[in-house]
Specification:
Residues 38-114 form the HTH rpiR-type domain. It holds the Pfam family HTH_6. GO terms for molecular function: carbohydrate derivative binding; DNA binding; DNA-binding transcription factor activity. The structure is a single chain. By secondary structure, the protein is of the alpha/beta class. The chain folds into 2 domains: 5-114, Arc Repressor Mutant, subunit A; 122-304, Rossmann fold, CATH 3.40.50.10490. Helix content is 58%, strand content 8%. The chain contains 16 helices and 5 strands. Helix 5 crosses helix 7 (74-81), helix 5 (53-64) packs across helix 8 and helix 10 (120-141) packs parallel to helix 15 (267-287).
Length: 308
C-alpha cells in the first residue's frame, strides 16, 4: 500500500485517541461544520474490523488517494474501487458520516489543516493558472458532435429552459443574457419547486439545459427526470460522465474543474461552465446569423437608452 505525506500525518493519531469513546462514533452536524471531530483515520480504524470485503476496497483506496478523493464524485469512487455506490455510502456511514458528501467535507477540512497557506506573491498565479487549466481541460473534453447537436437543438427551439442551483444558476443567467440578445425565448429557473412545476407544461419541443458541476444535485436530477417524461430534450453541462444527471440527458457537455468541497461555487468551476456556454451561444449565433445580427442591433439600441 502506498502512503503519502498526508497519510503519515493522519496516522500520527495515538491509540488513546482510538479508544477515546466506546461504540460507533457519529459525527454531528456541529462537529462537521467546526471540524471538531476525531481524525478520519481514527474513525476508519475504529470500524476497520466491521468492513466487508468491498468496503475494505474503499478504505484502501481512500488511504492511497487522500488528495484526489475530495475532487471525485460518489460514482467515480465506486468505479475506481470496482464496487457499487451503495458500498461507498455504507463505508461512509460505518465511520460516522451521514453520507459521502459529509465524508468529503471532513476530508477537505483535514487536508486544509496540513497544507501551507500560499504566500501573497504566489496565490495570484495559482488562481490564474487554475482558471486557465480549467478552460484548457474543458476544451480537450469537448466533443464536437455533442456540441453541434446541442447547438442545433437550442437553435431550433422556442421553449428553452435552463435549470441550475446556486453557482450553476449564475452560469445559467449568463446563458439567458446571451441568448435573449439574439432573440431566443429562454428562461432560467434556480428554485427547485419552480423547476418541477415548469416541467408540467413541457413537451417534445422543449429543451432543458441542466447545469450541475457534480451531476448529482438531487433537485436538478428530479426536475430533469420529470422533463424527460414529458418528452423534452435534455442537454447536461457537468463535470462527470457517469452521474445521475447524464442518465436522463440526450447530450452531455463536459466541464473540467477541480472543486474542493470547502470552495464550493468557486470561480474556477463557473469559468469552465461559462466556457461551454460561450461555445453554445457562439454556435447558435452563427447558426442563425442574419436574424441574430438584426436582433442584437435592436437590443443594443434599446439598451443604449439606459446609458447617460
Amino acid at each position: 500500500m502506498i502512503y503519502n505525506d498526508y497519510t503519515n500525518y493522519f496516522y500520527s493519531c495515538t491509540i488513546k485517541e482510538l479508544n477515546k469513546k466506546k461504540g460507533r462514533l457519529r459525527v454531528t452536524n456541529d462537529e462537521l461544520l467546526t471540524g471538531n471531530h476525531p481524525k478520519l483515520t481514527v474513525l476508519m480504524e475504529r470500524s476497520k474490523q466491521e468492513f466487508t470485503k468491498s468496503e475494505k476496497k474503499v478504505y484502501d483506496f481512500v488511504l492511497e488517494h487522500f488528495e484526489e478523493v475530495i475532487y471525485q464524485s460518489l460514482t467515480e469512487i465506486a468505479l475506481a474501487c470496482k464496487t457499487g455506490e451503495s458500498t461507498v455510502l455504507r463505508f461512509c456511514r460505518k465511520i460516522g458520516f451521514k453520507g459521502y458528501q459529509d465524508f468529503k467535507f471532513a476530508l477537505a477540512q483535514e487536508l486544509a489543516s496540513v497544507q501551507k497557506s500560499d504566500h501573497d506573491e504566489t496565490f495570484i498565479d495559482k488562481v490564474k493558472n487554475n482558471m486557465l487549466q480549467a478552460i484548457e481541460n474543458t476544451e480537450q473534453l469537448t466533443n464536437m458532435q455533442e456540441l453541434q447537436k446541442s447547438i442545433d437543438l437550442i437553435a431550433s427551439s422556442n421553449d428553452i429552459v435552463v435549470f441550475g442551483i446556486s453557482a450553476s444558476g449564475i452560469a445559467g443567467l449568463d446563458m439567458q443574457n446571451r441568448l435573449l440578445r439574439i432573440g431566443k425565448n429562454i428562461e432560467v429557473i434556480t428554485d427547485s419547486h419552480m423547476q418541477v412545476m415548469r416541467t408540467v407544461s413541457m413537451n417534445e419541443n422543449s429543451i432543458v439545459v441542466a447545469i450541475s458541476l457534480t451531476g448529482s444535485t438531487k433537485d436538478i436530477v428530479d426536475a430533469v427526470q420529470n422533463a424527460k417524461e414529458k418528452g423534452a430534450k435534455v442537454i447536461a453541462i457537468t463535470n462527470y460522465t457517469n452521474s445521475p444527471l447524464t442518465k436522463y440527458s440526450d447530450q452531455v457537455l463536459l466541464t473540467s474543474a477541480k472543486e474542493n468541497p470547502l470552495d464550493s461555487g468557486s470561480l474556477v468551476s463557473k469559468v469552465s461552465q461559462l466556457f461551454i456556454i460561450d461555445l453554445l451561444c457562439t454556435g447558435i449565433t452563427m447558426n442563425m446569423y442574419d436574424k441574430a445580427k438584426q436582433h442584437k442591433e435592436q437590443v443594443a439600441e434599446v439598451i443604449s437608452s439606459k446609458l447617460y
